[in-house]
Write a structure and sequence with these properties.
The chain is mainly α and about 250 residues long. It has one domain. Helix content is about 60%, strand content about 0%. The termini are far apart.
């Protein structure tokens, strides 16, 4: 079977999983409409335990968005969609033997931490206590540590798994691209970025929003200031600026 057919089938399965998750979700699940901001995230997490199934489904939607973006905007990825799927996939999976993977500084040290943070926030969205912990408390560090571990697993799948850069685009077949950088920077950068975004959101962004009722300004500040959370929101079918219990029209008090 050709790579194109298998890739299309894999992406179709991912779409179906995402669609199924949206269809079977509770009626309280936020949508991209402004009314979503009135909905509590507890309707999607529920219970006292992390909804691992929901985190997997959300991560699959995030994975779908990222691979569709690669196919749409990277000619080198589209070029590798033909040929024997399993043979080329096997030839693309290697243990890294150097640091750099040939990508630019911005991709490795900005783009990958954002992508990792989005996966981490996907976990927190399904952790019933992920958003309740006091900033920098013991429970907070534990929750962000679990989110970073989820991000590391997501990154490993993104690099080597059946729905990965290795299987879709044959990243790794070229020896230059076999670097450690993504495996280290994605989870470590995700952890740092989540902590930074949390601190920024709970301090500066709330402060700024208390001084303006302009929804456009509030939405722009949230989206630009917390890109990892924005990407996770999009994958979850929410507006990028979504905050549970803090709609854009909140009174700022």
């Amino acid at each position: 079977m050709t790579r194109t057919a298998l890739t299309a089938a894999a992406l179709l399965v991912t779409v179906c999983v995402g669609a199924s998750a949206e269809t079977t979700a509770d009626t309280g699940t936020p949508t991209t409409s402004e009314s979503q901001d009135q909905t509590s995230r507890t309707s999607t997490t529920g219970g006292a335990r992390t909804d691992v199934k929901g985190a997997i489904e959300g991560s699959l939607r995030l994975l779908l968005l990222e691979h569709l973006g690669r196919i749409a905007f990277q000619e080198k990825t589209r070029r590798e969609l033909s040929g024997p799927f399993f043979t080329d996939y096997a030839h693309s999976v290697h243990v890294p033997d150097h640091w750099s993977d040939g990508d630019g500084w911005f991709v490795n040290y900005v783009g990958h931490p954002i992508h990792g943070a989005a996966a981490g926030y996907m976990w927190l969205d399904h952790d019933p206590h992920g958003w309740d912990e006091k900033l920098f408390s013991g429970g907070y560090w534990a929750s962000r540590g679990r989110a970073a571990a989820w991000s590391a697993a997501f990154s490993l799948q993104f690099e080597f798994g059946p729905l990965s850069e290795a299987s879709i685009g044959n990243v790794g077949m070229n020896p230059i691209s076999r670097g450690w950088v993504d495996h280290v920077i994605t989870p470590a950068g995700a952890f740092a970025l989540m902590v930074g975004e949390d601190a920024l959101d709970r301090s500066f962004l709330k402060w700024a929003e208390s001084r303006t009722a302009n929804k456009f300004v509030r939405a722009t500040l949230r989206t630009a200031g917390t890109p990892g959370r924005a990407l996770s929101n999009i994958a979850n079918g929410r507006a990028p600026w979504f905050r549970d219990g803090r709609p854009l029209n909140w009174d700022g008090k």
